[in-house]
């Protein structure tokens, strides 16, 4: 009897509690004009199979179709990750203040690579000033002087005699290079042959960086060593290292050893220049001479970390973009014909000369690179942590409140393929960016975010386009090229997705 009575009173109490809570919620909705609903939520368990069988892009597509452009994935009720699909809901992601939205600890795995003196190892004020150093070092007025050194590297790389062999081991990885023009470069293209673009561009981009960013000390005396050490850093970007950056794994130990050795190399250069009062015209010198707003000069540890972060962030992504551009061009004859014709027109206008202003006129080549990046972004997803609630509005007019504590994701790999912005999004079509179409402006300034956007725009965008244009303008002028391996699939197991296996291209030097 007592149990029955207790159960009855418990039921009555529960009904009153539910009614009270519901009344409060309804009043808040009715009386608070600012109140907005939270995004629809899906449980992560239900998505695991889809992600494993069809991939992340398919999962986003499925949820976008079912739930709309804003939805949250709940991980066992402990944490929510909210996806923002499309430019209409991406404004705050790219423009929000650091106090409202930031990377949080999502990029902590980069601290052992770059160092605790820069990037995500320092506070936002210091990091912002360090980004200013990069902006100063890579501004257009300074970039102009880098075109000739870049072109020289490409010319030297492709003028040495030797054909590709499948058992060929590049000597550049094993021995340091020396001499004014370093007559032992691995490419050794000759008149005709077959090369792996992915491998060639990795080497060539690093050579360009050595000449333009690091200076003569590295370029002429220790390129092989520096290149090998950076490969060890890249290899330290596996899933285990990202999730457990301080674990005592073999990959992490190799990464840390490479970081120490690179630090020793750049520290010696820093001290040598200071001691001899030597001044060079490279980015390394710009960082050595940089000063914070309070007048403090950069320390040697900061300069070392800044140059490592710059090279790490730019070289690998530029070499992959160069490779994807080549694969896309050589697979699509119409685009290849158009970009070759553009080079012929520029030669008729300026002769064989290439300078910064001439590169800016290569609109067709620029669009070819841009569409390759649209289809194969080096950063497939942007991630931020929410520190203060904010509201997003979909293109249909629905508003959602994104709460503090959520992780938000801008899925670049999916946003770049939205059919209401890009016509035939899975087709390589560089003309989509030409005057009269300009599809990247259809949804506003965040329709195309291969280089980020807003407060998070990549400082190296102009430099990246410049060096890729230098490489491809030279190749298109001097060689007939043909893709001889299948168009590469994407290796999604890497933090920066890259072509699987080799990208083999046959070449024949064009008669002058």
Produce a short descriptive summary.
The chain is α+β, with helices and mostly antiparallel strands. It contains 20 helices and 13 strands. The termini are far apart.
How is this structure best described in words?
By secondary structure, the protein is α+β, with helices and mostly antiparallel strands. It has a domain at 36-105 and 379-416 and 443-449. It contains 20 helices and 13 strands. The strands form four sheets. The chain has a six-stranded mixed β-sheet with strand order 1-2-3-9-6-4. The chain has a three-stranded antiparallel β-sheet with strand order 5-13-10. Helix 11 (223-235) runs antiparallel to helix 13 and helix 15 (300-331) crosses helix 18 (363-375). The chain starts with a helix and ends with a strand. Mean pLDDT is 82; it is low at 1-32 and 160-187.
Low-pLDDT runs of 5+ residues are 1-32, 160-187
Mean pLDDT: 82
Q: Mind describing the biggest β-sheet?
A: 6 strands, mixed
How many beta-strand runs?
A: 13
> Total helix count?
20
Share of residues in strands: 5-15%
Annotate the secondary structure layout.
Layout: H1 2-31, E1 41-43, H2 45-54, H3 56-67, E2 70-75, E3 79-84, H4 91-95, E4 101-102, H5 111-114, H6 124-137, H7 140-143, H8 147-159, E5 192-196, H9 197-214, H10 216-221, H11 223-235, H12 239-243, H13 250-276, H14 283-289, H15 300-331, H16 333-350, H17 356-360, H18 363-375, E6 382-386, E7 390-393, E8 399-402, E9 407-410, H19 412-415, H20 461-478, E10 479-483, E11 490-491, E12 498-499, E13 504-509
Parallel strand pairs: 1-2, 3-9
Antiparallel strand pairs: 2-3, 4-6, 5-13, 6-9, 7-8, 10-13, 11-12
